[in-house]
Amino acid sequence: MAQPLVFILNGPNLNLLGRREPEIYGHDTLASVEELCRRSAEQLSLAVDFRQSNHEGELVDWIQEAGETADGIILNGGALTHTSVALLDALKGVGLPAIEVHLSNIHRREEFRRHSYPAQGAVGIIAGFGPQSYALALVAMSTLLHARPGLGQAGRAQASDEPHEAEA
Length: 168
Ligand code: CA2
Prior knowledge:
The chain is of the alpha/beta class. It is 34% helix and 15% strand. The structure holds ligand CA2.
């Protein structure tokens, strides 16, 4: 049987990871974060499609594409997290389980980073663990997808206000 497919989408400037501001974002490059995701996904029997864009519209297109072809979305919207109603609407529009991730703990940084638009369309948020935030998000996504057999692309686990319990 095909493995559930998770889109891992990265927003503006995350392509610069490892090259600037290592005191905030660490020394890992986005390529090494992708490699970590691939290793984690393999252990969790998930397939991943890992992408980065500096353009809001492209991220919206990819969320819509995920709605047609994937089973879940992990999103680090970068700075668009704090500004983009379009990302929130896209997540709500596709109805796939989504998890928001951040390398840094956005709640112990500047005030303007403390609000997230996409969070309202996400099952949950993982922030502050550096690249491990992505690996933790994949574990959480695996719990959501594997606990609901048959709820793949066709099934549509929905983000809701209720915490998701693993089901037998
Ligand atoms: O902590 C995160 O993952 C963020 O999404 C990273 C965004 C930031 O705007 C969010 O508030 C939190 C910034 C991504 C840009 O990363 C850079 C990395 C190296 C050099 C410059 C930017």
